[in-house]
Every structure is written in structure tokens, then in C-alpha cells.
Amino acid sequence: MHLACILPEVILTLAGVLIMLVDPLLPRTASRKPTGWFSVLAMVAAFAASAWQLHLAPGTAYYGVVQTDAFSVFFHLLICGTVLVALLAAIDSVRPEAHDMGEFFALILLGTVGMLLMTSAVELLLVFIGLEISSISTYILAGFRRRSGKSIEASIKYFLLGSFATAFFLYGIALTFGATGTTRIAAIAAALPHTTTPILAWTAVGLILIGLGFKVSAAPFHVWTPDVYEGAPSPVVALMSTAPKAAAFAVLLRIFYGAYPSIQQHWWSLFWVLAAVSMTLGNLAALRQQSVKRMLAYSSIAHAGYLLVAFTSFSLQGIAAASFYALCYVAMNVGIFAVISHVGGYDDHLWSITDYRGLAYRSPVLCGAMAFFLLSLIGIPFTGGFFAKFYVFSAALQQGMFGLAIIGLINSGIAAFYYLRLLTALYSKPAQGSPVLAVPRMSITLGLAILLSASATLLLGVVPRSSLDLAQRGAGTLFQTGHPAQAAVQVVNDAPSQ
User: Fold this and answer.
1) CB–CB of 295/353 below 8 Å?
2) Counting beta carbons within 10 angstroms of the beta carbon of residue 291, is it exposed (0 to 12), middle (13 to 18) or buried (19 or more)?
3) Quick one: angle between helices 7-22 and 101-120, nearest 10?
4) How many CA within 13 A on the CB side of residue 370?
5) Shortest CA distance to 236 belongs to which of 120, 318, 155?
6) Using one digit for the tens of pLDDT, what is the confidence trace for 266-293?
């Protein structure tokens, strides 16, 4: 039972270690593409193992620090599916002559292990370990273009700011232990109403929110996002803009709904402000961008704000809406970056909006896919983006958050402007006298990655019921254990198995 609870993590750990052992033994001139295919197979196996976990009875393992339930399985499937698409997009996007691509794929697999641990951990110290495993991998991947000054700058900036954010998170864990005498999420919820030092708990909430706010690119902790997105290779941005954020949002949900429900009146206003500021600042900054990647970076800040709207509802519907929004967002975002990584190439020689003018005449299929993802990011009906925003704003309205919902709707209108500006450029004729760069032929792996992303985005907009049902199952599991009485029962039930 214990091994079954971490089976996806075990599969990916073994695969990553095996790549690191085999890669140095290959001739320097040999192609590393087989390691990419092996990574894809490992991710498929991890996805299948996560789906199999749906049939397991909810429970904890390894002295109660890991929990398998519908909530953790939902995000396991989400993360494994996202990384699978990112791997497929990366196989033919990287330089074929590169001899260090084995490290590239191993880092992705090992980073995914950290993300999966974050979503299933019910012990704050294990959450911290998973966060560090994921972060260290993405720090290195951001600077993988070692001959590019922008890439190295992005990696260093991401590392330095990320280290500060991690320190805030760790101090928050320490203060939580000081206030409650434990770092287990269920035990924290049970002990918090009886703490004699509530000021420590309130401070801990703020520090933990700073640490995780950095990971999800919520304003004002977003300053790293545009520079890192612009400097990192596009295949890496396709990964780091989706899967790590989904894992961080899962941690936010589990910690704040599972550990701190008794002081909800203290952190509710923080999420309200973060949601409003992130939406507004992200969209207004995106209006001024000429770089496609920087525009999408600020767009991701705005989408973090939309998702945080669901946190303010403090309800089962809010958890389900946040989970469903994360699913829709990663589907369309990994898809659009897969297109960008192919059109712009590994070195991002196409970076501005004007460089994408006339893409419809050079590659109608890629242009159509990019246009579809842009429409979903806007929130046009029959796309996943529409239902994602619909459920988030509905959850807010049900709890009387009319002001925040209005701010969100206004920001959705602002966002439509810069998305449509890029969409218009795709179908406009190139400016007279400007060089027309040929688009490389689309490979099978890239086509499969885009097909999977587009299919998911379309299905989530047309038949969202099955995904929403799974999100609601996970929300039910989390919301039930997020009350002090229920948490105390869970701690007692877990005690004999320790």
C-alpha cells in the first residue's frame, strides 16, 4: 500500500536516474533523442500509475506524510499529462547535435517527481522538499542555453529570487510549528483553534503565502516572470509556466483549506487583494508588450489572479473551480508554447508580435492551432478557457464576491485586446520589405503534442463534466478534512498505523 501511494514518483525517479547513468556512456556524437523517447514512455507509465491510484482507497502512507486521495490524483494526472506534452514538444525542438540533452530530459523527470510530491504531501516539511526538488530542476533548465546571455541571466535571477521565496516559505513552516507544535496539515487544523500564540499563526500564513505566491507568479511576487520567460528556451517555458504552477496551486489549496480554515477571516482578504492586483497588473502590463513571450508572461500573472478568485469563496465549489481552472490553463498554455518553440526555434529568433505576421500563409496548421489557444485564453465559448472563467466567477458570486467578480470580468475584456492583437497579426500579410522566415516542417512529436493540447482544450470547453466531476471529488476530499473536527478525527485514525 505504501509503495502504491508514490508509484508515479518511483517510476519517474528510476527513469531519471537511469538516464543520468546511461547518458555519459553514449558517444559524444551520438544522438540523445532516444533519451527523450524513454522519458516520454516513463511519463506515460507515471500517468497510467496515477490513473490506477483512482481505484485505491483514500489513505496515508510512510508515517502519514503522503496521502492518496481524489485531490492528489487529480493533480497527479494533470501534471503528468502536462509534462508529457512538454516532452513531446521538446524532443524535436532542441538541437539534434547537443550532447547534454540527456541531462535536459533527466532534469524534467526529476523535477516532475518534486511536483508530484508537493501535491500528495500532507506534511509541510515534505512539501518543502518537493518544492526544492522541482525548483532546482527549473533553475537549471531556465539557463540551459549556456551560450545565451539572456538565458544565463534568467537562470540566475530565477535562482536568487526563488531562494528568497523558499526562505519565506520555510520560515512560515517554522512559525506554524511554533504556534501548533506540529507540521502535519491535519494536526495543524486541529491544534490551531487552541493555540496560545495566534500571532505566530497569522505571521506564518503571510510568509507561506509569499513563498507560494512567487511560484504561481502572483503579483507583487511576479517580478521574475517576464525576464525568465523571455530568456529561457521556449520548450522549458512550456513546462515551467504550467506544471510547477499547477503543483503550487495544489499546495496552496491543501495548506489554506486543510491547515488554516479556523483563521480564514485573516487570510481571506489577502487572497482578495492578490487576485485583484494580479489580474489588473498582469493585463495592463501585457498591453504594452511587443515580445510574445513577455506578453504571455504577464498573461500568466493575470491568469494566476483569475485562479486566486476561487480561493476567496472558501467553499467546495471554489476548490473545484480552482482545480478545473488549473487544468484548462495548463492545457492551452502548454499548447501555445509548443507552437512558439517550433516556430521561433530553440534560439527564439522570432520574438516580437510583428515577427508572427503572416504565419497563416507560411504554416496554416500551426497558425490555426495558435489561434485556437489564443481564443481559449480570451475565454471564447466552446473552449476550456470559457468554462474555466465561468466556474471561477460563479464560485465567487455564490459567496457574494460581486466586486471581485466585476474586476475579473473587466480584466477579461482588457486581456481580449492584446490576445486579439497577436491573433490579428497571425492572419495579416507580412509588412512590405520585411524578411519572410520559413517555418520548419512540423514533426510527428510536435503534431502529437499540439493535438493533445488542442483536444484537451476543446473537450474541456464542450464536455467538461467528467473533468469537473473529478475536480469536485478532490474538492470534497479536501474540504471535508479542512475542518478542525474532521482533522482531529483523521489524526486519531492515522495514529495506530504509525
Assistant:
1) yes
2) middle
3) 160
4) 30
5) 155
6) 888 899 999 999 999 999 999 999 889 9
